[in-house]
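Memo to structure team: turn this sequence into structure tokens by end of day. - J.P.
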Amino acid sequence: MNERANESKIVKEALVKSGLSDVSVTHGHGTAWGWLHVKATVAKPSACTCHLAHKEPDGYYQPLCNLCKTLLSTKEHDATELIIKTTGRYRGDYSGNTNVTIRFKE
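Reply from structure team:
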């Protein structure tokens, strides 16, 4: 198994153990060769109020409640930190060249 495939496998196992679902770990191509791309899902919190969609004072439609926004942000941050810890990637200006996207399960 090559180094990139091994890194993907190790990262995926760690993220699944952390409680994320539907985890996909891939590497970039071309000029993004060194980037690690992660997609995963989490369950919506039971106290979610997203169904009460609202507009912000500037008129922007906000589809997520504050609880859900905070949960997604926290999960993405925690996943990035776990990837850096697991792989030893340098944190640097681009969070260790990782791109983490967490969404809610449908």
